[in-house]
Design brief:
Elements (H helix, E strand, L loop, with lengths): L2 H17 L4 H25 L7
Helix pairs in contact: 1-2
């Protein structure tokens, strides 16, 4: 499983936990983890984006 696939699976699991009605402390922890995952996914997207072609 690729890094992106693992991150997306982890994100889905966290979203499901969030929907189950966690307490305030757990909700805060889940939201922090989701923010970290989003940051990593955005960074991976930036590194995978090809730059301008050199001719």
């Amino acid at each position: 499983m690729s890094t992106v696939a693992k991150l997306l699976a982890r994100k889905q699991a966290l979203l499901e936990r969030l929907e189950s009605g966690p307490g305030p402390n757990e909700r805060e922890e889940i939201q922090a983890q989701l923010a970290q995952i989003e940051t990593v996914l955005n960074l991976l997207e930036l590194t995978d984006t090809p730059g301008p072609s050199e001719e």
